[in-house]
Design brief:
Elements (H helix, E strand, L loop, with lengths): L1 E4 L3 H14 L5 H12 L4 E7 L2 E13 L3 E11 L8 H15 L4 E4 L6 H9 L14
Parallel strand pairs: 4-5
Antiparallel strand pairs: 1-2, 2-3, 3-4
Helix pairs in contact: 1-2
């Protein structure tokens, strides 16, 4: 078992079966291209691999803002639905915390859909706090 950043196209593609469970609108044919485009803006993809298979994936970026200072924002965090309850999510989450600390971030934050009750339980068990409401509108 190892956690690493996806750097090669094959590593990025290895993450698709897992991340598509969270983001079903994604298409495998342009997934690598989309991730590469986001990487130009600071996006990174980390994955936990067991027996050469990605079982947990996190997409994240480091940014700065007036409210938080330097922070790590988790865009995507998902464990393969057939591999849940094996602590893979917790291990990847702890890796993200250490990555943030090693990069001098003061906060780790994420948004979670209001319907994702199991994810909310997980985040609360990781000692995260609900600190705001996120509002959006489609344009």
């Amino acid at each position: 078992m190892s956690i690493q950043l996806a750097e090669s196209n094959s590593q990025i593609l290895k993450c698709f079966p897992v991340i598509s469970q969270l983001r079903p609108h994604l298409e495998q044919d342009n997934f690598v291209e989309q991730v590469r485009y986001q990487m130009k803006e600071g996006y990174q993809l980390a994955f936990l691999e067991v027996e050469k298979q990605a079982v947990a994936v996190a997409g994240f970026r480091i940014s700065n803002c007036l409210a938080l200072g330097k922070f790590l924002y988790v865009d995507d965090l998902v464990v393969d639905e057939l591999k849940r309850s094996h602590r893979y999510g917790q291990q990847l989450f702890q890796w993200l915390i250490e990555y943030a600390r090693n990069h001098e971030c003061k906060h780790l934050s994420l948004d979670s859909g209001v319907q994702r009750f199991a994810a909310h339980r997980f985040y609360l068990m990781q000692r995260m706090s609900i600190t705001s409401h996120h509002f959006s509108m489609e344009l």
